[in-house]
Amino acid sequence: MKRKKKGQELDLISDIAITIIMLTGTFFILRSVVSASANNNLVLFEEAAIQLDNDEAFIRILQSKHGAGSLGDLIIFSYINDDKDKLKYNLEDFFDSIYPRKLCYLFKIEDMEIKRKCDEKEDFPIIDSKLEIPIFDGISQKNIKIEILSEGYSK
Length: 155
Fold this sequence. Notes:
Strand content: 15-25%
Number of helices: 4
Largest sheet: 4 strands, antiparallel
Distance between the termini: 79 Å
Order of helices and strands: HHEEHHEEEEEE
Number of strands: 8
Shape: elongated
Oligomer: single chain
């Protein structure tokens, strides 16, 4: 049986140490890339919304995942259940998670109106859209009118 020399054992240990250092470095590099791209999502969303037609941007906002479903689903359920407080909470929670500052808005769904006042107005509306959306309330299908106007930001 051959004996292992001390040099061979040190080579194995140094190879393992180098591998661990490389894996750790790779982890930190990937982590910084992922976190940087996550921060850019806010900017990309705003740039995309500006380039889109207002109605198309609003439709994409309504289709965005929020909570257990989409924001549109939460709005419809709040409307059907006549829960204005829940609707206001969902709107503010959603917009606060996307925009870097508090978005002000006037939101109407049929006769229900929710508002967050504007302290700083932009030169042109951030969102200005009026849509008719078909819903089924368990009894019948009907179209409901949804409007949103955002002219700036709240403090």
